[in-house]
Amino acid sequence: MDRIAERASINKERLYNYFGNKERLFATVLCDELAKIAAAVPLESIRAEDVGEFAGQIFDYHATNPELARLLHWEGLAFDGEVPDETGRAEYYQRKVEAFASAQQDGVLADQLDAAYLVFFIIALSAWWSAVPQVARMLTGVDGGSQPERVRRRAAVVQAARRLALPMTVGESAATAPMPGGAPDQQACPP
């Protein structure tokens, strides 16, 4: 709270008067960040959007806003049990689950995984690169800050999301299913 008050050029007492405590300040900041990603990566219906591109958009958001993953990590460590605005946030995520479930029922997405788990996997697949960049660097041997590596990682996320979520055709297995859009190095660079 001292550092925040100093950066805002206000006294700490004023900060406490406005927010009440550290938990309410944290909840306000996290709520603002979650609203930003919701606006940047909307999902009205998975039928209208490619699941791979949806994952790519989540990857892009986290690559340019790594603080969101850090805030979510901190929330998981700091709060025991229900988190601030859990009911509202759960409703938001439930809309995503419903869109995925509807797409599964229509055969647009594979139905081997529960829709809620599939949404979670897609988000984790897309965001984890920015959440633990040191692990990504140790595994790949490459820092993710360069544009060519970022493009390569995004293409891998898009492919993996498609592989995870799209139904296979008759006679295909996970090992033989073609990758939509080709190999990662064959993907077009994002604008």
Number of helices: 9
Q: What is the molecular shape?
A: globular
Average pLDDT for all residues = 83
Number of DSSP strands? 0
The CATH topology assignment is Tetracycline Repressor, domain 2
Biggest β-sheet description = none
Cα distance spanning the termini: 39 Å
Q: Would you give an account of this structure?
A:
- There is one protein chain.
- It is built from 9 helices and no strands.
- The chain is mostly helical.
- It has a single domain (44-186), classed as Tetracycline Repressor, domain 2.
Question: Any descriptors?
Answer:
mainly alpha; Tetracycline Repressor, domain 2; disordered C terminus; globular; 191 residues
Summarize the structure.
With 191 residues, the protein is an all-alpha fold.
Topology, element by element:
Blueprint: H1 2-7, H2 12-19, H3 22-40, H4 51-64, H5 67-78, H6 86-105, H7 115-131, H8 133-140, H9 147-165
Helix pairs in contact: 4-7, 4-9, 5-7, 6-7, 7-9
